[in-house]
Amino acid sequence: MSNENTETEKNVLTTTELLNHYTQSIQAGLDNGSKYVNAFTSLNQTQDLDELLTAAVSLTNYQLNSDFVEFPHQFSDEDVQLVFFERLLKLSDHADGLSISNSEHVQKLLAKFSSLGDNTFTFTKSTKNAAGFFFGPTAHNRPLFYLNLKSKEMMFHGSALIDYFVVDLEGLDVSALKDAMNVIMRAAEVLKESFGFKIDFNVLDGVNGEFYEFAAGAIPEPILDELFVKSADNQYILMSGENGGASLTLDNDTQLNVYNAGDEDRPKWGATIHDQDQKESWLNLLLDYPFIKDWYLDNKKQLEILSNKFIFGYEMDLQSLIASSVYLNRQIESKKQLHWSNDGRVKNAFVALDVELAEMANTSEWFKVWKTHRGKHDPNKTPRETLLYEYVDAMDFYLLISNLKNWNHVILNSQDDLDKIKQFKKEDNLDKQYLALKRMLFDAYFDHSGDSFSHSWRLFLKFGLVDFGYTEQEIEQAFKDKNKINEDRQDQDY
Prior knowledge:
This protein is of the alpha+beta class. The chain is built from 19 helices and twelve strands. Helices cover 54% and strands 10% of the residues. The longest helix has 31 residues, at 15-45.
């Protein structure tokens, strides 16, 4: 008992110790504030680029407040990036292109390009990386580029740049649009030359031979036919190229080539541009030639230029696909006045999935070793397009079963594994993999095993993403297209 009293006495601070702790804590908070002020002064006043970057990095995610000292008016991390960006241009003799438009407002800074009038821009913090920020217009959700001062990365988002400069700002003088784009390009070049930043210029890259990869992977023949027609209507001649591609000669001997850089099984369609001055980027091309712009926008789902997926992300929205599958099933049950138990629904869904998987295999014809030319196709569709529709038919029943069996978590948990699945080796012979998929599927039914269903589902994803070579975007779009067809069929008493 005496030992416990001694320990209690030791834990009680004297008045002097308590006040010393209090004053030391306040002083630490004030010292931290002084450190912040010094860094911010450097950000605002230094004439040295290295000091500017050091100040911006130190101020990003800076913990200014403490338990004893709080500063009510603070600039945000987004504001720090904007001040850095403006000062970077000023110190690089490019002060005229961009300016902070409301520096009197402490809470939120905005920027304006001198050529774009009252349109304002700001940075937004990435949800994936606390040191990463997206720059874009305040009036539209368009992350034009990603900036990470700590890791020294700057990446442009092709789709957002086109949506903003080509679509949202349609009607503005092209020279004004290019002036704003050049300001961003100059900043990127300074970051690369002065600090060694890794820059992905994407659709702004004007270097000859830069390959602008299309998101769809494969390009249907009618899309190229449309470019032939639009070119001819504008007095340009589109010539046939290798592997079903095309070559278009534009003004000043500028050459646009559209072709498949992959192979028939794993197509990788895209475009390159060659011009004498190496200034004609994909984005400039769309601004300079309205008929090419119209062709791109008419077929945007297929022709969208790929950007860094990890940063800007294109992820198949599995939650949305499950919802679509369930909605269609309920629509069918209501239309056909089906009244059955959940067990009956489950049995029917498993049988339907089994049949759809067989149709997928039969359309691919990988197992038909007696055939030289394999792959069935519907009228006006390539074998690859036909197989994709069979694939998403099977996918629909995987999603329906996951909902009926309360296994939605199996589907949703696979979202984080898609990139890993895409790294798996492509099989030369799919027989064993197909039989394994079927066995796991039947185990899932007869043993009520969510784990077996999960294994079967992941093998199914590998079929689509690796062995058949489809992109997530292709699969999701085909699923939505086929879902719409099936909905329309219900209205037509299919």
